[in-house]
Structure formats: C-alpha cells, structure tokens
Amino acid sequence: MTTTTDAAPAIGPRALTWARRRQAAARFWRQYRGHRTGLVGLAVLALIALTALAAPLLVGADSQSVTAAPGGPLEAPSAEFPLGTDQFGRSLLALLVWGTRVSLTVGLLAAFLSVAIGTLVGITAGHFKGWYGTVIMRITDWFLVMPTLVLAIALATVLSRSLWTTILAIGVTTWPTTARLVRAQTLSVESRPYIERSKALGGGHGHIMSRHVLPNVMPLVLAQTTLVISTAILTEATLAFLGLGDPTIVSWGGLLQDAREAGAVSSGNWWYLAPPGLAIAVVALAFTLCGRTIESVLNPKLGVSR
Question: What φ, ψ does residue 256 adopt, rounded to 5°?
Fold first, then answer.
C-alpha cells in the first residue's frame, strides 16, 4: 500500500523577506496605535494632506487672482468670507487652502533633501574612519554651530527667489543633526559580529553600507524625517515672512508677510494674522507628535508618553 504526502511548497528568499517586512509593518502599526498623541497627529496630517490635494476642487485656481477678487479689502469674517479677506479682497480661507499645498511641498522636499544628505554623510563618516571621517565630522560640526536660519537667509538672498531656492536653502542647512545621529548608529551597527563575517566573506564597502548599515539606520532616519519636516515648514514660513520667498506663490509665511505689509498688526485685523499662524503651528505640532511617537515605537527606552 503506497501512501503519498503533499510536500509543503518551498518559500523563496525574496518571499520570506517580504513576509517578514509585512509582519514588521503590522507590528509597528499595532504599537503606533497605542499612542493617542501619535494618532491625533496622524489624523491632523491626513486631513491637511486631503485639503492640499483637493484644493483645486474646494476653492478653484482663480481664488488667487488679485484683479478678480470677489470681496473688498480687509473685510471682517462673515458668512460669505468665513476668515475675512486680504488687502486685495481675496478670500483668506481660499488662500489658506492654497497655501497648504506650498507649505507641505516645501516641507516634504526640503526634509527629503536634508535627510538624504545627512544619511549619506553619516553612513560614510561612520564607515570610513580615519582622516575622511574626521574631516567630514569637522565640517558637520561647523554647520551645527552656525545658525541654520542665518545660513538659509544667506542662500535665499544670493540665489533667485523661487520655490526651489527655498527648498535648497532649507535642505542644505538642516542636515548636520541627521548626520551625527546616523553616524552614531552606523558605528553601533558596524561593531556587530555579522559585519566582520561579511568582510571576511569578501563584502565590499558598498555592500556593507547598502545591505547591512542602511537597513539598520532607516528606522532612525524615518523618525528624523518627520521632525525635519516640521522644521522645514517653520523655516519656509520665516523666509517668506522676511520677504525671501517666491512672491508669485501663496504660502502661509507669505500670507503673514502680506498681513505685515498691510498693517494688520497696528489696525487690529486679527483675521489676517491668526489663520496662517495657527496653520503653521498645527502642522508643525502634528509632525512633531508623529515623529515622537515613531521614536517611542522604535526605541521604547525613550519612554514617550502615550
């Protein structure tokens, strides 16, 4: 009598890797949901992102026009204009919605550039020790002691006024903190035994940094990114308020600059100042809450409050 058994199908290395990644993502989300502050920050960011994406449908592109403004200059909040009007008669609610797109775009792209530079510098400085690491970290220390805002203002002043100039000015001046954090994590990773085994088996510098070091520092990079985004949004608003942003686009910092030029502070037109200022504060706080929660999930020893 012959019996047959069905052999279990073999799982390939790639499928096993993706299965482990899905399990890690599910475990991360379960732990993240346990932090009320992180969920609040995530909900606020989701609402703001949806508002930015739906801006053309909500308010229309013509809401930025100065010549076709629907109201009178500096009208107080009313049923027709819930947040009042600016000095040209444009609806401040519509301008605030459009400014969401610019502020989020600058924050995300500038943070990506900053974190990319910081990650590259940190990994290479931690991997290539000796004179290279020493020189790179001394340059990093120089950027750290220099005021970030002063460097960003200097770059924005020298270069032409545009959205990309703002992104570049923020990105190339805010990377040192990320570089130092990533370097410290790189030194910790490279002290582990499997790095020595990889070198003994012929693993080159690129293989070790990309296959072993980078995956281990990515959780730290992710948490740092959320914190850098809030800094980038605040810096963009500051540059725009100082008149160093692109005057052809509407941003939250640009609205504050327009309010200052229109004398909203002295004339008591609070509706011109409060909405963009509150929007900047809310977005920065939401990203900070998400970043702190990610740090707490990835490193429970931090003891961040739930």
Answer: -65, -40
Contact 91, 81 (CB under 8 A): yes
Tell the residue number behind the tokens 């909040």, with chain if given: 77
Q: Which amino acid is residue 262, in one-letter code?
A: A
Is 123 in contact with 206 (CB distance < 8 Å)? no
User: In this predicted structure, what is the pLDDT of residue 8?
Assistant: 47
Percent of all residues in the chain with a pLDDT value above 90, rounded to a whole number: 23
Q: Which two three-digit tokens encode residue 115?
A: 């974190």
How far from chain centre, in Å, is Cα 136?
24
Mapping DSSP onto H, E and C, the string for the chain reads CCCCCCCCCCCCHHHHHHHHHHHHHHHHHHHHHCCHHHHHHHHHHHHHHHHHHCHHHHCCHHHHCCCCCCCCCCCCCCCCCCCCECCCCCEHHHHHHHHHHHHHHHHHHHHHHHHHHHHHHHHHHHHCCCHHHHHHHHHHHHHHHCCHHHHHHHHHHHCCCCHHHHHHHHHCCCCHHHHHHHHHHHHHHHCCHHHHHHHHCCCCHHHHHHHHHHHHHHHHHHHHHHHHHHHHHHHHHHHHHCCCCCCCCCCHHHHHHHHHHCCHHHHCCHHHHHHHHHHHHHHHHHHHHHHHHHHHHHCHHHCCCC
Average pLDDT, the chain: 85
Residues 6+ apart with CB under 8 A from 259: 86, 265, 269, 272, 273, 276
* C-beta of residue 86 within 8 angstroms of C-beta of residue 262: yes
Structure tokens at 202: 């012929």
Angle between helices 36-53 and 270-298 (to 10 degrees): 130
**pTM of the entire structure?**
0.82
Structure confidence by residue, pLDDT tens digits, 221-241? 888 888 899 888 888 888 888
- Longest distance between any two alpha carbons in the chain, whole Å: 99
Give the whole-angstrom CA distance, residue 260 versus residue 73.
15
